[in-house]
């Protein structure tokens, strides 16, 4: 028995959290169960609440900044958990990773330039490219017979050259397909970027959720030539469920590159970090390791258990345990439904709110993303509803 109760259901409704409270505002049927947005239903590290409570005793919340203790904690985490030696001056913070990606797109490319992504992929990548007047170049991932996705290196390099790609947004671990890219894969894709002078934004927000048998490789740490053209996005927000506190740590060892992105941030007027965000980040990285280890065990248990349930009860939904992330990428293609009718059936007949696969690109047609970072009883409730509609009958 561990120290933390991940099996306990925590009622989150009526807290203005988007996972549960947005459903009513969107007019979704009452009682719809939520398994969509990538946040978790667990109480986080107790020391985070303590640190925040401690700070509220002062009850003055003026402009604030990050101190040495903050950097010690973040740098220590990168070293210990990811074997990555970073320096304080490589860091800057933003209110989120998507914000940082938008800033990097603006800083490192011009309007009309091409930015490459690998769909199906986390949809804000495409949004940040298009909303900033840049062009999406898609090098789709290829799905092998066993359901595992791979990068298409030939297609990638061909498009880098023919479309004059300036920037590549790498998702590692990959949301939604759950791949943790191997060293060999990253070396191969990185060499292409070096060869053609393509900048890389490496989104590593899911790095702390990599499951047994797999290892997270920090892209920028693989080779000095990679570090030189890379902006790495990290955050405590996925690992410790702090998204509402709006703080991410962006890392670039190349001074010129870093300054370019920071100057773009300066133009927005964003300056000081959110006080509670930085307090929570420091406490999480300083005290959160035991909690994280227990959580990881629970989540990995969910991922395995979920697969067993499907195999036994809804075998026509195809699922491969993700190598990283707590997101299941479910293949419903055997049912022969279009993306739209699948979404409708899941919402209106099964009563579940999942993320429809086409949100991640047309490659996601026939797929759904199911967030497994919830208590097992709550997951079971959703699976039972899914079984009634998609099960053996
Ligand atoms: C790959 C990836 N990047 C970024 C984010 C969101 O980051 P933020 O909330 O810091 O903008 C998510 C959230 O699901 C994600 O999956």
Outline the structure in words.
With 393 residues, the protein is of the alpha/beta class. The protein has two domains: 18-45 and 289-390, Aspartate Aminotransferase, domain 1, CATH 3.90.1150.10; 50-287, Aspartate Aminotransferase, domain 2 (3-Layer(aba) Sandwich). It contains 13 helices and 14 strands. The strands form four sheets. Strands 2-10-9-8-7-3-4 form a seven-stranded mixed β-sheet, sandwiched between helices. A three-stranded antiparallel β-sheet has the order 11-14-13. Strands 1-12 form a two-stranded parallel sheet. Strand 8 (199-203), helix 8 and strand 9 form a beta-alpha-beta unit. The longest helix is centred in the C-terminal third of the chain and has 25 residues, at 289-313. The protein is globular and about 60 Å long. The structure holds pyridoxal-5'-phosphate (PLP). The site of pyridoxal-5'-phosphate (PLP) has 13 residues, from helix 4.
Q: Nearest-angstrom radius of gyration?
A: 21 Å
Oligomer: single chain
CATH topology of the largest domain: Aspartate Aminotransferase, domain 2
* Overall helicity: 40-55%
Order of helices and strands: HEHHEHEHEEEHEHEHEEHHHEHEEEH
Distance between the termini: 37 Å
Bound molecules: pyridoxal-5'-phosphate
The CATH superfamily label of the largest domain reads: Type I PLP-dependent aspartate aminotransferase-like (Major domain)
Number of strands: 14
Number of domains: 2
Q: What's the shape? A: globular
Report the mean per-residue pLDDT as an integer: 97
Q: How can the largest sheet be summarized?
A: 7 strands, mixed
Q: So what's the CATH class of the largest domain?
A: Alpha Beta
Number of helices: 13
Quote the beta fraction.
5-15%
Structural class: alpha/beta
Strand order of the largest sheet: 2-10-9-8-7-3-4
Name given to the CATH architecture of the largest domain: 3-Layer(aba) Sandwich
Low-confidence stretches: none
């Amino acid at each position: 028995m561990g120290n933390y109760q991940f099996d306990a259901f925590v009622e989150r409704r009526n807290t203005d959290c988007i996972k549960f409270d947005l459903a009513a505002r969107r007019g979704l049927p009452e009682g719809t169960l939520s398994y969509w947005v990538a946040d978790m239903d667990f109480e986080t590290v107790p020391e985070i609440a303590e640190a925040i409570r401690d700070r509220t005793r002062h009850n003055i919340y003026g402009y604030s900044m990050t101190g040495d203790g903050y950097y010690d904690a973040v740098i220590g985490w990168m070293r210990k958990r990811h074997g990555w030696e970073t320096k304080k001056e490589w860091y800057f913070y933003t209110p989120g990773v998507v914000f940082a990606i938008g800033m990097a797109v603006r800083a490192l490319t011009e309007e009309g330039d091409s930015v490459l992504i690998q769909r199906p992929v986390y949809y804000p990548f495409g949004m940040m490219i298009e909303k900033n007047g840049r062009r999406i170049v898609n090098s789709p991932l290829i799905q092998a017979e066993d359901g595992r996705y791979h990068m298409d290196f030939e297609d990638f390099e061909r498009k880098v050259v023919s479309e004059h790609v300036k920037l590549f947004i790498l998702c590692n671990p990959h949301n939604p397909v759950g791949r943790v890219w191997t060293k060999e894969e990253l070396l191969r894709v990185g060499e292409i970027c070096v060869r053609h002078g393509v900048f890389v934004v490496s989104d590593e927000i899911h790095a702390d959720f990599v499951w047994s048998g797999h290892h997270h490789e920090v892209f920028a740490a693989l080779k000095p030539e990679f570090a030189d053209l890379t902006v790495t996005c990290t955050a405590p927000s996925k690992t410790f469920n702090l998204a509402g506190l709006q703080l991410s740590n962006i890392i670039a060892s190349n001074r010129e590159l870093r300054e370019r992105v920071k100057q773009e941030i300066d133009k927005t007027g964003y300056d000081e970090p959110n006080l509670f965000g930085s307090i929570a980040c420091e406490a999480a990285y300083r005290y959160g390791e035991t909690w994280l280890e227990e959580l990881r065990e629970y989540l990995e248990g969910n991922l395995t258990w979920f697969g067993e349930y499907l195999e036994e009860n809804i075998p026509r939904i195809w699922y491969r345990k993700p190598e990283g992330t707590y997101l299941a990428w479910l293949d419903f293609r055997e049912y022969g439904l279009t993306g739209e009718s699948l979404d409708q059936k899941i919402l209106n007949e099964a009563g579940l709110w999942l993320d429809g696969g086409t949100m991640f690109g047309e490659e996601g047609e026939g797929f759904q993303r199911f967030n497994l970072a919830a208590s097992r009883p709550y997951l079971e409730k959703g699976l039972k509803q899914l079984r009634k509609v998609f099960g053996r009958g």
